Amino acid sequence: MTWRLLKIIIIPLIKNFYKLRIRVQGGDNVPDSGAVIILGNQKNLISVLAIETVMPRKVYWAVSPSVCRGRLARILFRIFFGCFLLDPGRADTRGFRSAFETLRKSEMLAFYPGVVNQGVALFCLRSGYGLLPVFITQETSTSPFRHININFGPVYNLSEYRRIILNVENVDNIVLQINRSVEKLSG
């Protein structure tokens, strides 16, 4: 219910308040159903709103505790964006359980901020679900509007890495592969 309220009322209000104009490339790469992990360079709330605006279905956000320091922010993020706290750099069992449960329900999961580190790479590898790379740019122009470009790449998985020995070097290679797939979308 709150997600529909967000899509119908709140996002258009925020888009007009921030004067957002969103352009999408590769929208046909976004799956209509099934679990997928969205990995990209979303670094601010504007990019989160842009992704929420263009997605055909709900995105659940795994949010770093450093972003939601206040209790009110956590409550608002949870109500409107379906967020839960997850710190991939620590052994955060509650956050990881929530993330896996989201994917088991065939939902879309995204990380905010969009930093791919060893914890995120291990999570993606262990989950076995497809990765949807996204690259977001924000253009500042002389017009009163803020243009946001969202470029979705094809969904892929890390199945070729499923049987490797997990050591720091191999996990760093996975991080590098994921980051390259996102950076390829930049130009």
Brief overview, please?
The chain has 187 residues and is an alpha/beta fold. Helices cover 41% and strands 21% of the residues.
Largest sheet: 7 strands, mixed
Beta fraction: 15-25%
Specify the structural class.
alpha/beta
Strand order of the largest sheet: 1-7-6-2-5-3-4
Gross morphology:
globular
SSE run: HEEHEHEHEHEEH
Helical amount? 40-55%
Spatial gap, N to C terminus? 37 Å
Low-confidence stretches: none
Please tell me how large the radius of gyration is. 16 Å
- How many DSSP-defined strands? 7
Count of alpha and pi helical runs? 6
Descriptive report:
- The protein is of the alpha/beta class.
- It has one domain.
- The protein contains 6 helices and 7 strands.
- It has helices at 2-18, 45-54, 71-81, 93-104, 118-127, 168-183; strands at residues 20-25, 36-40, 59-63, 84-85, 108-112, 130-139, 146-152.
- Strands 1-7-6-2-5-3-4 form a 7-stranded mixed β-sheet, sandwiched between helices.
- α3 links the parallel β3 and β4 (84-85).
- It is globular, with a radius of gyration of 16 Å.
Question: What keyword list fits this structure?
Answer:
single chain, 187 residues, alpha/beta, 7-stranded mixed sheet, 41% helix
Map the helices and strands.
Elements: H1 2-18, E1 20-25, E2 36-40, H2 45-54, E3 59-63, H3 71-81, E4 84-85, H4 93-104, E5 108-112, H5 118-127, E6 130-139, E7 146-152, H6 168-183
Parallel strand pairs: 1-7, 2-5, 2-6, 3-4, 3-5
Antiparallel strand pairs: 6-7
